[in-house]
Amino acid sequence: MLDAGLIDPRALRNAFGRFATGVTVVTMRDDEGRPTGVTVNSFSSLSLEPPLLLFSLGNAQVSRRWLKDGRHFAVNVLAADQEQVAWQFAKPRDDKFEGVPSFPGERCDVPCIDGAIARFECRHHASYPGGDHEIIVGEVLHLETAGGDPMLFYSGKMARLAE
Ligand SMILES: Cc1cc2nc3c(=O)[nH]c(=O)nc-3n(C[C@H](O)[C@H](O)[C@H](O)COP(=O)(O)O)c2cc1C
After folding, report:
1. Distance from residue 91's CA to the centre of ligand 1 (Å)
2. Among 38, 42, 45, CA closest to 65
3. Domain Flavin reductase like, which positions (predicted)?
4. What spacing in Å lies between the alpha carbon of 148 and ligand 1's midpoint?
């Protein structure tokens, strides 16, 4: 049995935030085929052969509903100048893509974000429970990389690589 009482969640969140990450937007379609997405920094590589990646989504996140049963999604790794995009996909709103330039995926019928420095088009492979989050594993079907600096996230703030 896991003991939830020993660690203060706020202290834990702050300590997790000391781990600097990149920032991605995971894009997908909802059950009615409308484009949507969610800002995610829990992204990680998982396996090379077979090609797998993972990220975790809070159980309350709406996007979790659309990431299941072999459905397609894309992980867009944001560039340093895409802070606005990161915040837009991190807030609930009807049209998350409003004003965000996008294009159709190569192998997936999902909208992908213009200007990302890498893109992984995926098929949902598995989901695993993880406390108040769910771990989502995607099989990479297609990838693209581009030049440019990454956006970073550290201690609750966006950051950039130093010169
Ligand atoms: C930089 C950044 C990283 C985030 N990473 C995650 C994450 O890995 N998992 C998660 O569940 N929420 C994460 N969030 C919060 C979600 O983006 C946010 O709650 C969003 O509104 C959820 O949208 P949805 O309810 O439409 O799925 C992150 C937010 C920011 C700003």
Report:
1. 8
2. 38
3. 16-160
4. 23
For 15, counting Cβ atoms within 10 Å of its Cβ (0-12 exposed, 13-18 middle, 19+ buried), the class is: exposed
Closest CA to ligand 1's atom 11: 57
Regarding the domain with residue range 21-155, which homologous superfamily does it belong to in the CATH classification?
Electron Transport, Fmn-binding Protein; Chain A (2.30.110.10)
Query: Which residues, 6 or more positions from 23, have their beta carbon under 8 angstroms from its beta carbon?
Result: 39, 40, 41, 77, 78, 82, 86, 150, 151, 152, 153, 158
| Segment 121-128 mean pLDDT | 98
Which tokens in the block code for residue 24?
Answer: 């991605």
C-alpha 33/C-alpha 46 separation (Å) is 28
Label residue 1 by pLDDT band (50, 70, 90): low
Contact 73, 28 (CB under 8 A): yes
**In the chain, what are the domain boundaries?**
21-155
At 146, which amino acid appears?
Answer: A
